[in-house]
Design a protein that fits this description.
Length: 227
């Protein structure tokens, strides 16, 4: 069907309206179950690349998810397959309670109420936030908010998670919690991060971007540790 690649970018370029070119001829293939780090300096194009995976941004070139080309016809289907977790959880959490936030996606998929509630319970269980259903997301710690933001995406049962700077701003304990959570999840992941220690523990492959181009793409094994 799609030769085992669940994410394919073919010659993808993108320029922001102000004229800043954020991606230049990017080619990338990711297989099912891979956890891939996207690293590089600020402005390298990491977040821009993630936003192409579910059509929030669209440039030139082709994006295929699970063998489907991203276009008007498929974009809703693809958004169900790619769960995007923003760097700032306040961009993701906007409901009065945790329950409402995590239920939002499945409700919009048109699922029946029992299925929605089952998915909410399951997603909160995955991120160890059961019992927080009635809490206001705005009163949670940053680490708790990040976990709820991931739950809002998991409740859609995506095949692919795209995470933008998941560990930024977290204290060491919250960071370890998040790392353990992401290691446990079976989804294919693309993780944009400045936190090299975090992605080295999580990912099996490190793709380096610079000025919108992929300049390096290496398998990462603990045995290769270079300090």
């Amino acid at each position: 069907m799609h030769n085992g690649h669940v994410v394919e970018l073919e010659n993808v370029s993108f320029t922001y309206p102000g004229g800043q070119q954020a991606l230049v001829g990017v080619n990338l293939r990711v297989s099912a179950g891979e956890k891939v780090a996207l690293v590089g300096p600020n402005g390298a194009g990491k977040s821009t690349l993630l936003l192409h995976l579910n059509g929030i941004l669209r440039g030139q070139g082709k994006v295929r998810i699970a063998g489907m080309e991203l276009n008007e016809r498929n974009v809703r289907l693809i958004r169900g397959k790619v769960g995007l977790v923003f760097q700032d959880p306040d961009d993701q959490l906007f409901s009065p309670t945790v329950l409402d936030d995590v239920a939002f996606g499945p409700l919009h998929m048109g699922l029946p109420e029992e299925e929605v509630l089952a998915r909410v319970s399951w997603a909160l269980e995955q991120v160890q936030m059961r019992g927080y259903e009635r809490r206001s997301p705005h009163h949670l710690s940053l680490g708790e908010k990040k976990r709820v933001a991931i739950a809002t995406v998991l409740s859609m049962r995506p095949d692919i998670l795209a995470l933008d700077e998941p560990s930024s701003g977290l204290d060491p304990e919250a960071r370890q919690h998040l790392l353990a959570l992401l290691k446990r999840l079976p989804q294919t992941m693309l993780v944009a991060s400045h936190d090299l220690g975090f992605v080295r523990e999580l990912c099996t492959r490190i793709v380096t971007l610079n000025a919108g181009r992929i300049v390096d793409d290496l398998p990462w094994a603990g045995s290769l540790q270079q300090g």
